[in-house]
């Protein structure tokens, strides 16, 4: 797949997976590519349909959560896109959306209902996660007594740094910090309950919020970026859940495990993936999409 699928149009921001383009006054075009990254490097292989999976899952959740929290989505129907984008409709269909340009909150809002990932590492070291004391004797992947808000600082190194709530207050102010914590935990609890009804455990997830102009001219806090995808969330199959160790998940852990097996030094150039790893990774993303949305296939 071309790395410049929109011809000469250059993205204003190109991330590891997403490309952002101007799409009119105060509007952005979000395009999810099929690139995959691990250990802060974009790998030499793409995962077919991954961009569509991420976009379609985000669209599902934006709709499901619309009565709980407003979001930045304007349209994902390419027929409604500006005329100059229509020539790229075959590529954009299913993997893109036009959104409000938001003033982003400079905090990653993370909710955890289970002890895993960096939270497990923090707990092993300190008995706490982001300064929140937890009961002694918890095992890896244990369900927490209650979901917790474990924010992270945004930075430009590719590594998010876990921070305490007091640092969120120092960054955005007390009132907004309280709102972010309450909203993050409310969204997580709603999404986790739904996921459980579909046979999935939502162990943890990361949200991003921003401000867009409301109809009355005030600033409105909205849910932005991707939401509750396998790239921003840790999903486990409920039927195989066995605390006391790491759980098989629908995120990139399968790819990370392969890269560890080949003893990649995590320095560029990033390796390509064998065909069987690409195929298995694609199937994991598709399974997450189908299980969450109830849909049998992606948009053509």
Written account of the structure:
Residues 13-268 form the SAICAR synthetase/ADE2 N-terminal domain. There is one protein chain. By secondary structure, the protein is of the alpha+beta class. It has helices at residues 50-64, 89-92, 117-126, 165-172, 174-197, 253-261, 275-293, and strands at 13-14, 18-22, 27-32, 35-38, 41-46, 73-75, 96-100, 103-104, 107-114, 128-129, 132-133, 143-149, 152-153, 161-162, 200-213, 219-224, 233-237. Helix 1 (50-64) runs parallel beside helix 7 and helix 4 packs across helix 5 (174-197).
Lay out the secondary structure.
Layout: E1 13-14, E2 18-22, E3 27-32, E4 35-38, E5 41-46, H1 50-64, E6 73-75, H2 89-92, E7 96-100, E8 103-104, E9 107-114, H3 117-126, E10 128-129, E11 132-133, E12 143-149, E13 152-153, E14 161-162, H4 165-172, H5 174-197, E15 200-213, E16 219-224, E17 233-237, H6 253-261, H7 275-293
Antiparallel strand pairs: 1-2, 2-3, 3-7, 4-5, 6-7, 8-15, 9-12, 9-13, 9-15, 10-11, 13-14, 15-16, 15-17
């Amino acid at each position: 797949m071309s790395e410049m699928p929109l011809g000469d149009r250059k993205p204003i921001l190109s991330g590891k997976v997403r490309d952002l383009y101007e799409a009119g006054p105060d509007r952005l075009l979000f395009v999810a590519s099929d690139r995959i990254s691990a250990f802060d490097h974009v790998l030499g292989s793409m995962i077919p349909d991954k961009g569509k999976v991420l976009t379609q899952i985000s669209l599902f959740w934006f709709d499901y959560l619309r009565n709980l929290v407003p979001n930045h989505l304007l349209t994902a129907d390419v027929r409604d896109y500006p005329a100059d984008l229509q020539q790229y409709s075959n590529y954009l269909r299913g993997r893109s959306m036009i959104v409000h340009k938001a003033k982003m909150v400079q905090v990653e809002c993370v909710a955890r209902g289970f002890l895993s990932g960096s939270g497990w590492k923090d707990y092993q070291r300190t008995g706490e996660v982001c300064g929140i004391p937890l009961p002694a004797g918890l095992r890896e992947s244990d369900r927490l007594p209650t979901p917790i808000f474990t924010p992270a600082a945004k930075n430009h190194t590719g590594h998010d740094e876990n921070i305490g709530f007091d640092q969120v207050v120092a960054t955005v102010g007390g009132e907004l910090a309280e709102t972010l914590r309450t909203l993050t935990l409310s969204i997580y609890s709603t999404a986790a309950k739904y996921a459980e009804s579909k046979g999935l455990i939502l162990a943890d997830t990361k949200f991003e919020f921003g401000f867009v102009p409301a109809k009355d001219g005030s600033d409105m806090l909205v849910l932005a970026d991707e939401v509750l995808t396998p790239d921003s969330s840790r999903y486990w199959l409920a039927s195989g859940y066995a605390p006391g160790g790491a759980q098989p998940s629908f995120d990139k852990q399968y790819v990370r495990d392969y890269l560890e097996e080949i003893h990649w030094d995590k320095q560029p150039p990033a390796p390509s993936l064998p065909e069987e790893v690409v195929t298995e990774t694609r199937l994991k993303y598709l399974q997450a999409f189908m299980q969450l949305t109830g849909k049998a296939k992606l948009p053509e």
